[in-house]
Amino acid sequence: xxxxxxxxxxxxxxxxxxxxxxxxxxxxxxxxxxxxxxxxxxxxxxxxxxxxxxxxxxxxxxxxxxxxxxxxxxxxxxxxxxxxxxxxxxxxxxxxxxxxxxxxxxxxxxxxxxxxxxxxxxxxxxxxxxxxxxxxxxxxxxxxxxxxxxxxxxxxxxxxxxxxxxxxxxxxxxxxxxxxxxxxxxxxxxxxxxxxxxxxxxxxxxxxxxxxxxxxxxxxxxxxxxx
Length: 227
What we know:
- Strands 1-2-3-4-5 form a five-stranded antiparallel β-sheet, covered by helices on one side.
- It contains eight helices and five strands; from the N terminus they run H-H-E-H-H-E-E-E-E-H-H-H-H.
- 15% of the residues are buried.
- The C terminus is likely disordered.
- The chain is of the alpha+beta class.
């Protein structure tokens, strides 16, 4: 099911984007809606202008309102240009802006995806009260928090953010501990892989000795085991 969902990457991104403010707000961050409010204001203003122009034209006719229509077209162009600039030049894929209640540190989260890769690309910009700014970029596959049935799983997503972003980890330390355990598991697996590698090399060495001495490889393996 998840494999099928990778063909609809925008849905994966939108679902994850929706979960992000819920998680951060639960950690004591106060979300700022300024970016969204400005975008909605520009969009609704352009729509209202179009509706008013239609009403003037329908009620009074084109000839008597063409002067106002010309002005309306010019204003609409300005509003649309401003909206486009705001989305691409100011928001820049921003899905969350907030400030932590306790520390006063500001956080801005930007997200994006590639067209054919089911990878969530996150850029987190944190700014302290004294103006010190840091940027952290994290690229993680959506399979990390979507199960085989295509359902969003909250805990792995929270762990990903808490582990990779220091400010979030400080606000939610319980989800960082899991990352430490994971590193231990990875270390054990690496050690096991190394043991397997040495065992393989020992077996190959025994076979080479058997071939050189003319002894059957099977008995050479046995000698290697006894050694």
